[in-house]
Amino acid sequence: MHSLITCALPSHASRCANAFNAGRLTCYLVLFVWVASPDVTSGQPSLSSPNVLILIADDLGIGDVGCFGNTTIRTPAIDRLCREGVALTHHLAAAALCTPSRAALMTARYPQRYGMVGAASGGPPVLVHVASRAGLPSSEPTIGKAFAAAGYRTHFTGKWHLGSGCGFLGRSCQGPLAHGFNSTFYLPNTLFERANVEGSFWVWPEEDFHYHALVGTSAAVLAVAVLLKRLKFNVAAAVVVTSLLVAAPAAWFLLTHYRFHTPRWYQVSEWMDFNLNFVVMRQTSVLHQRAPLESLSMDMVRATVDFMRAEAASGRSFLAVHAFSHPHTPLVCAPHNRGRSRHGRYGDAVEELDEGVGLLLAALDDMALYNNTIVYFTSDHGGHLEALGADGQRTGGYNGLFKGGKFQGGMEGGIRVPGVLRYPGVVRDGSKLSSPTSLLDVLPTLLELSGLPSVRELLPDAAQPLDGLSLSSLLTGAGGATEDPTRGRLLLHHSGMFVDAIRYNTGEHVYKLHLRRPVYSSAGSYQCGWGETTACCTWRGASHSADISQHPILFDLRRDAYEDRPIANTSREYMAVVQHMKAQLEGWRQQVPYPPSQFNSVMDVILLPWLQPFTFL
């Protein structure tokens, strides 16, 4: 074999010329294999390796998209993907809110494994500040690392929300760069309603007794200083006055711009949020101190198109992750998209999102990359049912007939998301896949569809057990209909550290067992009031959710997709299925202990000024 390979190398061409015809043919074949085969171990994808474009919407409800049933919001670009690819009709987020769901998509692992979830003891459910220490651990395998290890050029655009990793004075903020991405144009944090509300630096809420206590304490200290002065203790008086001049403003600032004295100790003032938490970064530098909301969607599209165009010109395979900021609040669109939809600001934002999808797909067409690019589209979780603007407009999404929404743990409306995958000539176009699939499956699926090795082979130093699995055989039809990799799998639906529900696919049935349910504002309702900051905070525990694990509710989603008819708890089916699912869950708990939540640590979560990035640094 060694002589055949040597014969195939250019420096030994004369030796090949003297070979017998059979030997010459062998040489040519070996030469062809040597040149054309992918050298993944040395970080070079094959010339035929497909590009990958991942599109992630923010807070988009499954009922907001045309090809998933909406008839009043225009989504022609997403509908085009459905016609040209596979619609995943039973696609599931790994959490009903941003940070943990995005972490699961990036790693193919439940975020509970590495503490990227809220805790019942009072911390936030997601990352809330750019300048905080919490974030996706560098030891985790990610989609960026895996494709980079395979020789791909990798890029991240848009909402990251997995930790910025900034150093002292906000320098060297790594963000996606620390997780395998070569280039970035991104929002380290998330956008929410305060991104459009500046607030005031000078605040003195007269109704807050803490401020009155500060005034009283300052007056008492000043009186002591006057007394010391009269008693000729001039040095002591000077020390007291100096201390007061330092301590009083510091105490006022902490009371005004931090919230340590409130149940939401991790929050900051409107002024701090507006000026510090909505930065836009390119690589490690701040591009905009405050996100330009009107142009942000198109700015992000341009960044991704520029990356794809540069890599297409170089002939290198690429992975581009484009995480839209729409349709999360605040719902600010470019002027040409305002007032165009039939659903106010929310509808405008969905249609601007779709416009961005269309521009990205058109760019692939223009670069002749249509046939050699895998495109995957989804949302990080379901729509926020309670979201209502100050003017009374609905500012949250529609989850179709699925019950519940964002923040609501295992409720279907919060985790059932639109999913589409297009790969021309490989994936069956215009088809639908009804097997339960998850954002956890994205990484292993894309690797196999791309003809690349597994995560364990690509990232041996970051080898961790994955919770996702490859859907390649289901998407391509390889292996026959009897080989459904999701059959027999148990999917867990968490709320923080709690397991709210379990899903089990037997093939004939898809059972869902509810162990905890939100406490709703009224009977027959599936929401917790109204307001853009209102939510069913199920990760908080008993005050927001009911533990029904002693008498769990069981549904068969094959027969009852919208969970209207629970299986009778006296039936043999109920008793057998519940016993099996509970046993599976207990086995999981024994094998996979969860570490403490990162979001329960004050010093990991609060805004640390010395980590804040600025445009002038």
Short recap of the structure:
Its cofactor is Ca(2+). The protein has 617 residues and is of the alpha/beta class.
Q: How many strands appear in the DSSP assignment? A: 18
Compute the average pLDDT: 89
The rough form would be described as globular
| Structural class designation | alpha/beta
Neighbour order of strands in the largest sheet: 7-6-5-4-8-1-9-10-2-11
Distance between the termini: 59 Å
How many alpha or pi helices? 17
Radius of gyration: 28 Å
What portion of residues is helical?
25-40%
The major sheet is characterized as: 10 strands, mixed
Low-confidence stretches: 1-42
Question: What labels describe this entry?
Answer:
617 residues, four-stranded antiparallel sheet, disordered N terminus, 17 helices, globular
Kindly describe this structure.
With 617 residues, this protein is an alpha/beta fold. Helices cover 32% and strands 13% of the residues. The protein is built from 17 helices and 18 strands. The strands form four sheets. It has a ten-stranded mixed beta sheet with strand order 7-6-5-4-8-1-9-10-2-11, with helices on both faces. A four-stranded antiparallel beta sheet has the order 13-14-15-18, with helices on one face. α1 crosses α3 (21-36), α7 (209-230) packs antiparallel against α8 (234-257) and α10 runs parallel beside α11 (344-366). The longest helix is centred in the middle third of the chain and has 24 residues, at 234-257.
